[in-house]
């Protein structure tokens, strides 16, 4: 870096454990400075009104305002702020929506700390950084999967099996010991990847292509 000051970074994630884990990075790299954190997109917007970060690490699934909506608003109001989506999800439609909203990077939470630090530096310099999963999502948008459902993750296949059994979102959440919001996300991802307009059609396609046993 040629800049004499460190890159000002903000963390936006609704899980305190995730935020605390990320803070360790700012003790390791002298060129990165944590200037704030927020538990959702709305709080991030409020923070930006008083303090302007250089780069924001933005989760997607959050209460009150999700990361994609927040990214779009922040980029509109503060175009100098760079946003990196930092998430556990790599579904194609989330990658596309994030980039359309103005995110300059898409990184998964299991990325090594050095890779995340480099993604922040690249974003600050105006260079995009995409996780390999996000890159594959962009490739699939041009080529498409060979058959519906081939790009479903193991967890999504579990959810799809429960959809076939007729379980609703709350029942799926209880069965898999996940939050209702996460269950809704997985169901939406299943429908999107199958090209289904409703749960019944998704179940029919799952049986047709033998996606569940």
Structural overview:
The chain has 213 residues and is α/β, with parallel strands linked by helices. Helix content is 52%, strand content 14%. The protein contains eleven helices and six strands. A six-stranded parallel sheet has the order 2-1-3-4-5-6, with helices on both faces. Helix 3 packs parallel to helix 4, helix 8 crosses helix 10 (180-194) and helix 9 packs across helix 10 (180-194). The N and C termini lie far apart (53 Å). The mean pLDDT is 91.
- Helix- and strand-based class? alpha/beta
- Counting H and I runs of at least 4 residues, what is the number of helices? 11
Strand tally is: 6
What's the helix-strand series?
Answer: EHHEHEHEHEHEHHHHH
Question: Runs with pLDDT <50, length 5+?
Answer: none
Q: Which radius of gyration do the C-alpha atoms yield?
A: 18 Å
Distance between the termini: 53 Å
Strand content: 5-15%
How much helix, percentage-wise, in residues? 40-55%
Arrangement of strands in the largest sheet: 2-1-3-4-5-6
Largest sheet: 6 strands, parallel
Q: Average pLDDT value?
A: 91
General form: elongated
Which descriptors apply to this entry?
single chain, 213 residues, alpha/beta, 11 helices, 6 strands, 14% strand, elongated
Secondary structure topology:
Blueprint: E1 7-12, H1 16-23, H2 25-28, E2 32-38, H3 41-50, E3 55-58, H4 67-77, E4 82-87, H5 92-101, E5 105-108, H6 113-124, E6 129-130, H7 132-143, H8 154-164, H9 169-176, H10 180-194, H11 199-208
Parallel strand pairs: 1-2, 1-3, 3-4, 4-5, 5-6
